[in-house]
Write a structure and sequence with these properties.
4-stranded mixed β-sheet; 22% helix; 14 strands; Nucleoside Triphosphate Pyrophosphohydrolase; 297 residues; alpha+beta; 6 helices
Length: 297
């Protein structure tokens, strides 16, 4: 016979006495990273542990309203978009007693905000990849929710440049000596590893090409640029890597900062070359087309 819950309410078994909590895997829309927060050292439960944000729902509150309230109180976020439910779970917050009985719902949420205002319950925060989160999180239930998030993203994510055509913009930047700035693609580059190319990168959904190029150049080599003019648009098709990109190139100039490698896993070297020197290098497809176009115009 299957054991059935005891629904008879007694002093020892107060049926209907339990807590409800709502939590969120919070994804930053621009970076795709998720928020982890570290519990304060003086808490009575899982002190100093890393977690995603959870909070108990108040009496007469629905789950979404309570979640928004908790997230504003604990991490200061007010622009959250509440997405699908990742998991529904059950646990005891301590010994298996009615007062510790907890039912929880975890949602996927997104935000445009990266600056967090922590309450006294937490002492630090980080925006991390799911893989980095799983290295930090030790609480099994929270690991479960991060894994659920990974599974949901993997099932729904189109691979830009592979399953859909990607857009990647480049910046053709010259110094006062007329030399062009090129970087050597590292082992973690999306494609054409070991080739020299102009700075730039993939444009994100909702960005203009110009804003995306400025962001990519800032992230990649730490400078602010001004776009002077469009040079050309290239077909960037890589059958051997099963990738397809459309790549506009802009002539740009530096308005602040000194070029330096900001993402060493993606870019191994950064140097200035004359056009003649550049043509002797193993260039990416787009960069070679750009230099050829520049010479012939």
């Amino acid at each position: 016979m299957i054991n059935q819950p005891n629904n008879l309410s007694t002093k020892e078994n107060p049926v209907g006495r339990f807590m409800v909590a709502a939590g969120a895997v919070i994804e930053h829309k621009r970076t795709g990273k998720i928020l982890l927060i570290q519990r304060s050292a003086d808490l009575d439960w899982h002190a100093n542990e890393w977690e995603i944000d959870y909070g108990r729902i108040d009496q007469f509150e629905d789950a979404v309203t309570g979640l928004k309230r908790e997230l504003y109180e604990e991490v200061g976020l007010s622009d959250l978009e509440i997405g699908p439910i990742l998991s529904v779970w059950h646990m005891y917050r301590g010994p298996e007693k009615a007062e510790n009985d907890l039912i929880g719902i975890t949602y996927l949420c997104t935000t445009q905000t990266d600056q967090i205002k922590l309450s006294a319950e937490h002492q630090a925060y980080r925006w991390v990849t799911p893989a980095e989160a799983l290295e930090l999180v030790k609480i099994e239930g929270i690991r479960r929710d991060v894994i659920k998030y990974q599974e949901m993203k993997s099932a729904s994510k189109a691979e830009v440049g592979k399953t859909v055509i990607g857009v990647g913009a480049g910046a053709l930047i010259f110094n006062e000596q007329g030399k062009v700035l090129l970087s050597l693609r590292g082992k973690q580059a999306k494609n054409e590893v070991g080739k020299w190319e102009i700075p730039g990168g993939a444009i994100e959904f909702g960005e203009t090409i110009e804003d995306g190029l400025k962001r990519e150049v800032k992230e990649e080599i730490g400078i602010e640029i001004e776009i002077v003019e469009m040079l050309q648009v290239c077909n960037h098709i890589l059958p051997e890597e099963h990738q397809h990109w459309v790549s506009p190139t802009y002539v740009c100039k530096i308005i602040s900062g000194t070029p330096q490698i900001m993402e060493p896993d993606k870019s191994e070297k950064l140097e200035w070359f004359s056009i003649e020197e550049a043509l002797q290098l193993p260039l990416s497809i787009v960069t070679r087309q750009d230099i050829d176009h520049l010479k012939n115009r």
